[in-house]
Design brief:
The complex is a heterodimer of chains A (about 260) and B (about 325). Chain A has ten helices and no strands. With about 260 residues, chain A is an all-alpha fold. Classes of the chains: A mainly alpha (about 260), B alpha/beta (about 325).
């Protein structure tokens, strides 16, 4: 119960902190417009399979991933810069319970990006917003957010250790868009991309959302996303423990 | 007398550091990186008794912050052991964290976009304060540090002193028995620093065990029961302020105001027989040459002879202070 309360309070704290950032708000307004445009023009130019909503959902998910990636990584770096990282490390609870609410908060903020992308798509490009299975869609949405948040957790553990891990977040934005099928259909990519994409929760999340929106069976994908989330949680727990100790050994918790 | 002896027997070491070492690995160059080891702390040992206010005094870069970070579990010692309330700072880090509060000097370490209250609320949760106790506890601490009425403002608008007081409140949220204060008055204006010292004194009076690091001699003198002077990673002296003063009280200090101190003066003065330490303080248009001498030695004329005819202002001779003791200890190294 205490653990859940800590996650809940931490999540609220970080959501509030993130939404008060001018830069974060600016990118949250601009990015969805760009993503909605990308989705629309790709759909028109490519004569692709699926519907316009199918593509728009992928574009919205790109926003969630960007938010998680830069939010989780950027927030750790920001905390290091503003000197709060040391205060957060030296508290009694396991570091997982300090960082998990933060990564969940960044993924939640990303939900706004998905919503805004769909709304802009509807307003500017007449993307239809009818969802075939609303219940599955509503379930798939938080499951996907949790999956992304937990993937962010694993990334965050490396940010604890390395002062310049920002480069990693730049490096990972586009590959994950591609490998999870957000940007283009996986069938267009080399066969070896498939197994990699199966290991990533966003792949199953976006498939679940698309199936729920376009009359497919989303539940197996939702289950897969949850399963991978549990695996990420375990990996994240051990990775954080390991990197936290290394950071205390190598003195990388501060900027200097 | 008997009561005092019994009380002394009951004294327990709350913080223990045994032969602590901490080495940092740093590199220079980009393509051909050269790695160097920097020994920040070299064999530091001390004990702090229950309810004691212990000062760790030293110049910048002496190893004070590194020592405190090892004790609060933020750094793992390269060698040696340390414990707080019997818990090892490496093996039982979680148990140590539950029982300590710590405050670093400076303005950093605050969630700037959120209010002071939000900051305290979040850390109260992290320190496991019971939900129903959070609000009264925060109210009490806001009162204690003088932030009552400003708690709903964003921390980014706080002055340096207010942020510092917020740090103190944060460090006391879970009412820890042991408190570590790392240069808490650094950068504060004189009034703010005095208020903070009064807060520290009240914590000591309330029975907290406190480790205070500072490079202000008068601060250590005013607050601490015992002091350890650290320089270049090693403890060079320790004792009560009175004991440290006693070590240098036999002697005198000659101060000479010089306009345009010639090069090499410090070395020439240091070579004079009977000189124990030499330091310089920069003044607006002059330098103050401070020379500590052995007792019953009159060196004023000899000192003036080393100045190569430079223009001299005020000359004075006085008894040594605790600050002189500190300068001597640090200069000796």
């Amino acid at each position: 119960m205490k653990t859940l309360r800590l996650i809940w309070v931490g999540w609220k704290f970080h959501v509030k902190s993130l939404t008060l950032s001018g830069f974060f708000i600016l990118t949250s307004v601009l990015q969805p417009i760009i993503f909605a445009s990308v989705a629309y023009f790709m759909f028109r130019a490519g004569a692709r399979e699926g519907t316009l909503l199918y593509v728009a959902l992928g574009a919205g998910m790109m926003g969630i991933w960007s938010s998680t990636l830069f939010g989780s990584g950027g927030a750790i770096q920001w905390q290091r810069w503003q000197g709060t990282l040391e205060y957060c490390i030296a508290v009694p609870p396991p570091f997982l319970l300090v960082i998990l609410p933060l990564t969940l908060a960044t993924a939640t903020i990303g939900l706004y990006s998905l919503t805004a992308t769909l709304v802009w798509g509807r307003l500017f490009f007449s993307v239809p917003l009818e969802v075939a299975h609303p219940v599955a869609f509503i379930v798939a949405l938080p499951v996907t957010v949790v999956g992304l948040g937990l993937l962010g957790l694993i990334l965050a553990s490396t940010f604890i250790m390395y002062r310049n891990a920002n480069a990693l977040s730049n490096l990972l934005e586009y590959p994950v868009w591609l490998v999870t099928g957000l940007l283009v259909s996986l069938s267009l990519l080399p066969f070896w991309v498939g197994p990699i994409s199966w290991l990533l929760a966003p792949t199953w999340g976006i498939n679940a959302l698309r199936d729920a929106a376009i009359a497919g069976n989303a539940w197996p994908e939702i289950a897969m996303c949850l399963l991978l989330s549990a695996v990420y949680l375990v990996i994240g727990y051990f990775a954080l423990q390991h990197f936290e100790r290394l950071a205390r050994e190598r003195a990388t918790l501060t900027l200097t | 007398m008997a009561v005092s002896a019994v009380a002394r027997l009951a004294v327990v070491a709350v913080v223990e550091a045994h032969d602590l070492y901490r080495t940092y690995r740093t590199s220079t160059g980009t393509l051909r990186r050269k790695w160097h080891n920097v020994e920040a702390v070299r064999g530091v040992s001390f004990e702090i008794q229950e309810g004691e206010l212990f000062g760790l005094l030293g110049p910048n870069g002496a190893g004070k912050t590194t020592t405190i970070k090892m004790l609060i579990t933020l750094l793992i010692p390269t060698k040696g052991t340390a414990s707080v309330l019997g818990y090892d700072v490496v093996k039982d880090a979680r148990e140590v964290r539950r029982r300590i509060g710590y405050v670093f000097g400076g303005e950093r370490g605050v969630y700037e976009r959120l209010s002071g209250y939000d900051n305290l609320r979040y850390f109260a949760e992290l320190y496991g304060v019971e939900p129903k106790e959070i609000r009264p506890r925060i109210d009490y601490l806001l009162d204690l540090v003088g932030l009552k009425g400003r708690e709903q403002e964003r921390a980014e608008g706080y002055s340096r002193g207010m942020k510092q007081r917020l740090h103190i409140a944060r460090g006391l949220l879970h009412d820890p028995p042991v408190v570590f204060l790392d240069e808490p008055t650094i950068g504060l204006d004189p009034v703010g620093a005095r208020e903070l010292r009064a807060t520290i004194a009240s914590l000591a009076a309330a029975g907290k065990t406190i480790l205070l690091t500072t490079h202000y001699m008068f601060e250590a003198d005013a607050l601490c029961d015992r002091i350890a002077v650290i320089n270049r990673g090693e403890i060079v002296a320790h004792g009560t302020p009175a004991e440290l003063k006693r070590d240098v009280v036999e002697g005198a200090v000659v101060e000479v105001e010089v306009f345009g101190l010639p090069d090499g003066t410090v070395e020439r003065v240091r070579d004079l027989n009977g000189v124990t330490s030499v330091s310089i303080e920069e003044r607006e248009q002059a330098q103050l040459l401070i020379v500590q001498t052995q007792p019953e030695v009159e060196l004023t004329q000899s000192i003036l002879g080393t100045l190569d005819g430079a223009s001299v202002g005020r000359i004075s001779r006085r008894e040594p202070t605790l600050e002189d003791a500190y300068v001597t200890l640090v200069a000796e190294e």
